[in-house]
């Protein structure tokens, strides 16, 4: 039956009307994977030399044991961002005499065939053969190799389980991401513990006692069955849909938005769109991840105040940039309905402004703990918060009138360039350059306070004249609406 599923997926691919485009994308991704594989092969062959350079005072095997868990921590971070869920259109099989265990088994086993599972084998096998095998024998070398494979499989199914649960409740992904960020910061920023020492403790004892290989193997098996039974419990899409609707009812029924009337209803619908679809939801989640962005720069004395302007704009406005650059592509599937509905486009724009202002306000509040690095950091964040809700929001919505590429909301965010065009590239320049056009002349003349004050005043002018800008955006949209709609119809 496994071969039948595989055959059906191949036929579905070749019979699709987008086969030519899919082949081109897969060829490009294949070349990229070959390039990455070549890098991993080279790094694996030179790993012993690299470890000698980084850890000149340590034994090679000790240094190797110390980096393994560090590698898998960053591997998990990468998996959560880039690894795609294995898919199979199960609906046609549910009414056929096909066992559910067979369908689930195919989904679970197909997840093993991933570059993420191959990369540690390519990277670490040469070292095991060159160093561990001659020094410790075949049994120890095999135990180390099997443990690396088992931990990789455990990470694979753990990442898939987290992503599947996150499709139902997006907060799970956020909590896991925050936990990983705290784990890394606890080691490399706050030095509360050492992941390297924990890694060396386990793998060092594994070399002395190879039977410990059973522990990672057991973890991999347990994680496989956790995935298996979770898929089995949620195989019927109707069950998942009802759970999603029930879970999300409380998160989108926001009493606060009721005071804004019709515009509040539009914002509530936008929030539902974000929470119920993978790609827009990833823009929101990534925005929350970037709340830790300041830890990279504020802990380093090499970065001056001009960098704080960039960081403040990025942290309080990342959602405006990442989500707003695809306006109005998120509504591409029902854009024709918007054009013929009773909704005034002016109200539609006001809803966008309200959404961006609300999210940016929450982002600014989340950055308040950076007061630890001084009150001036908070002042800069506040100025850039005003800049984002006043000027950057207007720039983003103006560029939206030039975007005619649709987005399929059902697709994931990893390696997905749908909807990306020249307007997104052009958008990045004014968003990044405009603040410095105002700030840098004052900074060079050592009047940074005056520069921040001018930026705040300009931002407030844009905020208080928002009705004027909405009218200009509406006028520009009226001239371009049919071209935008025609672009959204092209699949």
TrEMBL record:
Domain of life: Bacteria
Residue stretches spanning the membrane: 23-47, 59-82, 103-133, 139-159, 171-191, 211-231, 282-298, 310-332, 353-372, 378-400, 420-438, 450-471
Native organism taxonomy: Bacteria, Pseudomonadati, Bacteroidota, Sphingobacteriia, Sphingobacteriales
Name of the protein: Uncharacterized protein
Listed InterPro entries: DUF5687
Keyword tags: Membrane, Transmembrane, Transmembrane helix
